[in-house]
Amino acid sequence: MSVSPASAPHIPVLLDEVVAALAPAPGQVIVDGTFGAGGYTRRILDAGATVHAFDRDPDAIAAGRLWSQTQMSAQGTAPTLVLHPRRFSEMAEAMADAGIASVDGVVLDIGVSSMQLDQRERGFAFSSDGPLDMRMSQDGMSAADFLNEADEAAIADVLYVYGEERQSRRVARAVVAARPLTTTGQFAAVVRKALGYRPGAPKDPATRSFQAVRIHVNGELDELRAALAAAERILAPGGRLAVVSFHSLEDRIVKQFLREASGETPAGSRHLPQQVAAFAAVFEKPSKAIRPGAEEEARNPRARSATLRWAVRTAAPARALSGSLPA
Q1: Which of 19, 75, 76, 138 is 20 to 30 A removed from 245 (C-alpha atoms)?
Q2: Do 156 and 38 contact (CB within 8 A), yes or no?
Q3: pLDDT, tens only, 32-43
Q4: Does the domain at residues 122-218 carry the CATH identifier 2.60.40.10?
Q5: Phi, psi at residue 158, to the nearest 5°?
Q6: Is 3.40.190.10 the CATH number for 15-115+220-312?
């Protein structure tokens, strides 16, 4: 799918708030770890900063290159955009390869993009029937591979841990009994039947199972933990980290990472002595959770579950075990 970021209809979530958190300025270098349709990147470029944009989805990278070439033809100069067809967990290695020791900002928009959801053939959504795929990078194990080959216990665990599906065992049994599954419609129908779904209910129960399988297939939570650790390593003193998440599993990881990285530890009680951070705080006290207002939610339904957290890097050295983040 060749959609130019400049013409894509997808609306970046919390765009003004993210840009304010990053405070991009001319001469700065900022990493957009989740390029997608390029919404954040365009605003950062408009502020005069250079952007190193990452995406493991070949379609997003191809659209970004097309847009960059179009800008160069129209303006006579190329935008200060460097595209990396890599996972955002690899940003530290990629910056080192580019000869860049530190950056002034990192932004991450976690989860599946609107572009991916809207492409039936990618298999991320059940609003229209398509192949049971869900792979962001378009290679490796697909959702169909997992659901058709994993044993019942493994499927139940994934649904429970990543989808918080309380009836995960019932759904897993139904999946195994219905195999092989090849389309999103088949998978959704199996989940709905197992959970007794009635049309018109406020929330489709297949949502949790689709989220769980997608997160598992793409290793999303491990990628998030690794990306946060990488951002800690490459951000310069005064550099800013901004992360937009869309469900509690992601937000819990981001919140705990920033709390620990800023030295905010539990105050303790008469049963548990106060904990003392064993390192100098590597981030200043993070922002409170920022959520979209009613106007943005009405304009962009995807924003309804979004949460932005951001923090400023201190001059303290990165933690030696920063890759070992909380589960």
Answers
A1: 138
A2: no
A3: 999 988 899 999
A4: no
A5: -65, -45
A6: no
